[in-house]
Amino acid sequence: MTHSFGRDLFMTPGPSVIPDRVLNAMHKPAPNIYEGDLIDTVDGILQNLRKVARTTGDPTIYISNGHGVWEAALHNVVAPGEKVLCLATGTFGNGWADTASAMGIEAEILDFGTAARFNSQKVAEVLALDTANEIKAVLATHTDTSSSVSNDIAGLRQAMDETGHTALLMVDCIASLGCEPFEMDEWGVDVMVAGCQKGLMTPPGMAFTFHNSKAAEVSARTPKTSPYWDWMPRTDPDRFYMRFAGTPPTHHLFGLDEALRMIVAEEGIENVLARHTKQAQAVWAAIDTWAQKGAIRCNVSDPEHRSTAVTTVVSDSVDLLPLQEWCKDQGGLVLGVGIGFGDYEPHQIFRIGHMGHMNPVMLLGALSTIDAGLKALQIPHGSGAIEAAGRVLSA
């Protein structure tokens, strides 16, 4: 017998839980796409996106997912035949490198494994050897959703600056924007990419690039082959439709406008980030307790290197697919599937997304369901995990 007859809870690391308010904001007739309220709505969205990213730079909205804006960002500042340095701490760091290679860009990968953040000094050593400045950009993932490693972007910028190298710093914040502290301008990030379906709590379908004046100068002299990915007409359009290279994604924009109102105007970005930190610490407390006498543990051992948006759980001895199936079928809890990396196959991994629209009721309910699944399947685990998570949330 299943107990899953209420509303299912999706704790995947994107798409995240969509607030009812966002869904309701999308439930309206199609607007005038040539003039009127929609133009004002988009202007407000762009201003709020700047506030979340902590930048005065230019955000660009694409009808796309994260893989699309990987390509968009590269298309604007790196030409085929040029070289980029890609920093990998999981599947998605390598994925951006694969996109570059497919575009005819030479992609050198520095792989730092999947259990700790990258070493900025090693990056600096590579750049210092590139005296001809052949490397046009360093591609870094803030949080790699596969491994849940969170990287030190401010430290990377400092190390790059110490070399005097001219490479742009390009950062993937698809999993982290609106969940983890990020300061685009203060940290000296030249190009950033993000998606709408994670910390920004909007159904998948839109993604963003952000760029500063340095990147704009590089873009102006970079040859373009795609009018769709070219961000210049989008950021300084002669007509409104040019922001989207055609028809805008009207109802996604309505939803994003409502989500950003919740983040920026109501809860406040600082409170949003603090909430994510607290809730992540509660998840870690539960998993670390299970790990004391058990078969599962956090993939990232050092809390300083862990994402506050997603936590990857691994097992060296147990197939975790039955646990995921039990949680889904018996408890109505959908966990993030494992993306294999290193010595781990997908069935040895699951991921808990604790991003976006999340509160203690949802979080403790998810952890309690996992705890029940561990008991039901007789998977070895330490006791007291839910109490440990509760102590974090109550502190």
DSSP E strands, number: 14
Assembly of the depicted chains: single chain
Rounded to an integer in angstroms, the radius of gyration calculated over CA atoms is: 21 Å
Overall tally of domains: 2
Q: CATH topology of the largest domain, which one?
A: Aspartate Aminotransferase, domain 2
Give the name of the CATH superfamily of the largest domain. Type I PLP-dependent aspartate aminotransferase-like (Major domain)
Q: Report mean pLDDT, rounded to a whole number.
A: 97
Model regions low in confidence, pLDDT < 50 over at least 5 residues: none
Helical amount? 40-55%
First-last Cα distance:
37 Å
Provide the β-strand percentage band.
15-25%
The strands making up the biggest β-sheet line up spatially as 2-10-9-8-5-3-4
Structural class: alpha/beta
Q: Number of helical segments?
A: 13
Largest sheet: 7 strands, mixed
CATH architecture of the largest domain: 3-Layer(aba) Sandwich
CATH domain class of the largest domain: Alpha Beta
